[in-house]
Predict the structure of Copper homeostasis protein cutC homolog.
Amino acid sequence: MSKRAVLEVIALDAEDAVAAQAGGADRLELVTDMAADGLTPAPATVAGIRAAVDVDLRVMLRLADGFAAGDVESLVRAACEMREVGVDQFVLGFLGPGGAVDLASVERVVGALDGCRWTFHRAIDRAVDRGALRKQLAGLPGLDTYLTAGSADGVDQGLPTLVAEAAQGGEPGYEQQILVGGGLRLDHVPQLRAGGIEAFHIGGAARPDGWRGPVSTEAVARWRKELDGDETGRPDGSA
């Protein structure tokens, strides 16, 4: 394969961001509070990260643990505050009590993004019907990515779904890029790349000391090498 794979890394602060960029990250997902699986960071934190690096940033719009939208107007205000500090890419995703997409809430928040690009995150892995969710969201402005493990239980269980959805790329509801994350390991990469996956998302895998420690430039570089090496046909990059 000749197309460079996208490597997105979760960053909590400017130190993480600098380390991730130095290791070869193409894009950062900015969050806070990983104990709640990632919530919206403070605008000042985002502004500091933006000043520290020049890679793309996608900021989480999520105010509480779980996949319910909660206070939608607070989400809209958060989106507007991020726009004021220069954010032009976002991450979001909301489900209703029955596991279907909460389309009204998604549309309300997306309406505040003024056409910015955004990722629908792993709420898709908890959806009662992935295909229906994709079709409902297909026409929303700015949606260009789905962050997914293919399963709520992680990439090990989701591999067949990920490869099947990649094969549908370009069909209605499947035009967006698949960004694989959630239990992702280096040994998954060859099969995913062979299946047409071109974007990868890591969080804990970039932190040898866990979430209490910072992003490791060396850990990110290992992923960068694996992704680039896989383009030659071998996981180690040899000819």
